[in-house]
Write a sequence for this structure.
């Protein structure tokens, strides 16, 4: 907290930026709650939440830790598949299936992290990509469990039972708010992590590895732990995706899904809290609107992406924050 | 709110947010208007197909033929004046996108039925979404899995052929005529595997000798290493089970290697669009299966009528195989609505099950247990000479008449009778 804020505890005079930073999770939660009103259709709003959460997890490694991973599709996909398998093959209830998905994200992240974390820069990107392709083929070949080429079908959760309350999961708005609850919880957890001493260490490692090491921090362990935490967030996103679409296609683990999240994070603003959400919203809404209008939507979305990178190098949200701070 | 502009940064930030908010609302507004305008009475058919991606050309043809079926229904007065509408969405050949789009079609557009898809995985994704919500889905692309009890529901219909029927028909024709020694070149994914499984199954009746099966990954651009190996096996028949660009390259190189001199090449599916793309020489003499070819119009009045209507609507173009499936799928749906006199799901299902129809290729009907359309399979041979026009690409050698015996039995598929 800044000195100024302590002298003037009245938040209205602290300035919007400090206020917003301190209550970033709450503000994000508010926006998420009214978000579906502004979207063309609810399923798209749910997708934005899910891809936003996926990008949020990715951003922990990319923006805050400063490592570019090209293998996050494996974490996202593992979450989706494990959640789906828990429902389809074991008949677990929804909460256990989501837990299985998060665990899947953690496990695959640990596996990839242990093998890749000592490499830097482009090598880290290459190794994570190669390992995620291994995971892809593992799930592709396990046809009995994953459906292989045809994808995993039948993740049919019709209702969410909670303390005697029964929510109709087929209803689009109910589905949105169930997913939103998990995403908002993830906001608070991530905000807490970043605000903790450990969060400061993550950024210290990004800024100056030698100095962090000299200060007595275990750089490798910090990296690994951050990567695994990122896996948890991506796994949760994957699990929610599986429940939302009721299928898991093998494409979810394809390297295009890894590339997509890099694009979304760049578009929104790497290293900003809300940037990935903004990036996911802008990208998916654009894709949706333009592809209704022309089959050459990729051309137009690509041109807009290039324009964004050229004119907003810190991303859309990053630029807005910089303006606001001025 | 923004009228009291102060010099603090917070205000300009707020103004920016306001502007952005207004922009977002503006961007959304056309949708709101469309929602209000949509008439309650229109019968809506959701139509997710891969307009972008490698099968874009086929998908465009599906849309054209689907529109034709809707136009004919509307011109004939609709359902007591209620008009139909095709709501087309691009599924981008991605099952996740297809599921999202189907949710949009069902939840926002409130479609009555869904017809579409051009990939096995995509149709299974759409099917899972629609069956959970009690919406009838008529699939117009090939898959074996969609017939099986685990994916089937009473809302699931399958207008297209499936790999079992296609490879069975081609196998029965070719194994009887060209010899017993068979070699396989197969694309290493579900489509290729299902086709080979079908060929080997039917091959048992002919005691064929399996000389070997060489698998290649999807998107192979050079077959020159595998073709000599296949040639060395000296097969009577070389069975190439791949699709699209892979098939075009494989056939072109097989021609260059002179394999056709000693060996008959067969393919489970010969697509009109692929043949046009690759040219006459590469496909010369290749025999394969097809669900439809416009040239059967001298045999069936329904084909003639369909072709003429299509030509009239689209400047003399003839429909392709996948286009015809879309026409059949959409028209069956609308005829069932007419027959039932309502869009009520259960009554339309009953009407579809009772339908004996001939819309574009001779008689068809939906089998009761798995809603698979029992239909004829055409055995076609690619032409290289005496072609009357650009669309005159195949010669129909034989037609396997519709027969439930050529389908997997209901028991095999896991349906309880």
């Amino acid at each position: 907290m800044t000195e100024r804020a302590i002298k003037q505890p009245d938040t209205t005079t602290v300035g919007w930026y400090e206020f917003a930073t301190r209550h970033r999770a709450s503000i994000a939660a508010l926006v998420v709650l009214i978000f579906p009103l502004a979207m063309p259709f609810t399923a798209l709003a749910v997708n934005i939440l899910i891809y936003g959460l996926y990008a949020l997890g990715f951003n922990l490694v990319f923006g805050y830790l400063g490592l570019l991973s090209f293998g996050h599709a494996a974490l996202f996909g593992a979450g989706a598949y494990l959640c789906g398998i828990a429902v389809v093959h074991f008949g677990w209830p929804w909460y256990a299936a989501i837990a299985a998905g998060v665990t899947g994200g953690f496990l695959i992240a640990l596996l990839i992290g242990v093998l890749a974390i000592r490499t830097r820069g482009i090598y880290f990107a290459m190794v994570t990509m190669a390992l995620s392709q291994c995971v892809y083929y593992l799930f592709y070949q396990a046809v009995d469990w994953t459906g292989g080429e045809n994808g995993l079908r039948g993740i049919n959760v019709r209702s969410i039972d909670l303390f005697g309350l029964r929510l109709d999961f087929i209803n689009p708005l109910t589905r949105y708010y169930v997913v939103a609850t998990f995403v908002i919880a993830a906001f608070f957890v991530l905000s807490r992590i970043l605000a903790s001493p450990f969060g400061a260490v993550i950024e210290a490692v990004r800024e100056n590895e030698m100095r962090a090491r000299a200060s007595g921090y275990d750089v490798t362990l910090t990296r690994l732990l951050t990567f695994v935490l990122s896996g948890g967030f991506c796994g949760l996103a994957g699990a929610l995706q599986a429940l939302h679409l009721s299928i898991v296609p093998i494409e979810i683990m394809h390297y295009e899904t890894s590339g997509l999240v890099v694009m979304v994070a760049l578009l929104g603003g790497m290293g900003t809290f809300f940037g990935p959400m903004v990036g996911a919203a802008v990208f998916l809404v654009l894709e949706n609107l333009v592809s209704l209008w022309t089959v050459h939507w990729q051309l137009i979305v690509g041109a807009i992406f290039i324009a964004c990178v050229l004119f907003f190098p810190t991303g859309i949200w990053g630029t807005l924050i910089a303006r606001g701070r001025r | 709110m923004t009228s009291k502009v102060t010099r603090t940064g917070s205000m300009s930030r707020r103004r920016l947010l306001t502007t952005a908010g207004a922009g977002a609302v503006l961007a959304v507004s056309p949708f709101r208007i469309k929602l209000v305008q949509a008439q309650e009475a229109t019968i809506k058919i959701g139509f997710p197909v891969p307009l972008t991606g490698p099968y874009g050309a086929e998908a465009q043809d599906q849309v054209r033929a689907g529109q034709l079926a809707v136009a004919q229904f509307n011109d004939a007065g609709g359902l007591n004046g209620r008009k139909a509408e095709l709501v087309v969405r691009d599924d981008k050949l991605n099952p996740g996108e297809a599921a999202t789009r189907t949710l949009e079609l069902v939840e926002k557009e409130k479609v009555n039925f869904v017809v579409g898809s051009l990939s096995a995985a995509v149709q299974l994704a759409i099917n899972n979404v629609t069956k959970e919500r009690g919406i009838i889905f008529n699939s117009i692309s090939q898959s074996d899995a969609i017939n099986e009890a685990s994916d089937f529901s009473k809302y699931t219909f399958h207008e297209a052929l499936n790999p079992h029927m296609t490879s069975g028909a081609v196998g029965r024709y070719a194994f009887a005529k060209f010899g017993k020694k068979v070699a396989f070149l197969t694309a290493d994914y579900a489509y290729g595997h299902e086709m080979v499984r079908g060929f080997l199954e039917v091959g048992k009746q002919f005691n064929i000798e399996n000389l070997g099966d060489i698998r290649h990954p999807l998107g192979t651009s050079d077959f020159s290493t595998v073709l000599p190996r296949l040639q060395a096996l000296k097969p009577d028949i070389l069975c190439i089970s791949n699709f699209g660009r892979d098939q075009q390259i494989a056939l072109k190189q097989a021609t260059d290697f002179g394999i056709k001199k000693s060996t008959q090449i067969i393919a489970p599916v010969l697509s009109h669009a692929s043949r046009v793309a690759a040219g006459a020489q590469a496909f010369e003499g290749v025999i394969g299966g097809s669900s439809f070819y416009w040239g059967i119009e001298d045999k069936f009045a329904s084909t003639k009528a369909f072709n003429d209507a299509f030509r009239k609507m689209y400047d003399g173009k003839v429909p392709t195989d996948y286009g015809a499936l879309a026409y059949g799928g959409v028209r069956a749906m609308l005829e069932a609505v007419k027959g039932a006199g309502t869009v009520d799901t259960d009554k339309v299902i009953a009407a579809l099950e009772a339908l004996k129809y001939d819309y574009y290729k001779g008689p068809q009907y939906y089998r009761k247990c798995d809603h698979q359309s029992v239909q004829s399979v055409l055995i076609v041979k690619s032409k290289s000479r005496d072609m009357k026009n650009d669309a005159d690409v195949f010669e129909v050698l034989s037609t396997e008449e519709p027969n439930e015996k050529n389908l997997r039995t209901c028991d095999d598929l896991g349906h309880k009778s």
Summary: Residues 49 and 352 of chain B are 22 Å apart (CA to CA).
